[in-house]
Task: structure prediction
Amino acid sequence: MVSLINVLHIGRFGIVLTGFFLYKDYKPIKIIRNRYPLSNFKGNENNPLIKIRDQEILKGYITDNKKWTTKLFRDEKNLKIDLDFIKKSKGFKGKTYLGNWLAIPKMEVKGSIYIDDIRINANGLGYHDHNIYPIYAPFKTRGYYFGKLDLDSNHLTWARVIKNHNKEQLLAILSKNQEYFNIPQKSISYKILQEDKDHRKKIPTKFSLDINDDHIKLKLNIEPINYHYIGVSIAHYWRYHVRYKGEIEINSIKKKIDTIEITEYLKFF
Result:
């Protein structure tokens, strides 16, 4: 399941786009997308809180046992979401060529989803991020590749942000409990091994991620099981279900990797 809230605005003028995507066997089985005028949106700069049409759909709070939690709630036609995202790892923030990026890479998820009056109980792991990009970002950058990898007690978040043909950022953050380590760009290698065409655009369909650093050594091959195209105006976006295969070494402890995760590819124009 993926839930999105996108706010596009210049001053007081803009729109709010919401999206809900439910997948089964790596294919979308339910997609609900809505558009609202900016006047229907309310946010809070001091506390995590989002309202649309006076309905509270996201709220952050600290529980009685001091657990940082985000409540995600949606009540629309044929869709109801009532989920708690409980923070399990320390968040991080920084700047990329696109803008500001804040992420909490590992969250425990509990609650329920109701689709067409059918209840689906949710109990697993989730990821949350919050990005702030200037309105001109599509004209200054070409897009990004993004992925995450849960490694039991560790979590790896990685990205390749493309400014132009000659300039890019390679990012990798290793998280464990309430600590994280920002891996130097010189230690990261991301290669596209194969490309195919989808919706008249070239997209990667086989790639590799290697890290060679004092803290972590990683060799991964990444191949899509399926991918889902979502286009909005000049933004062309693919959400992949991929299989990661390879090996990781952290503090001289080696582990084989063979798992399935979600990755993203965004291309402007």
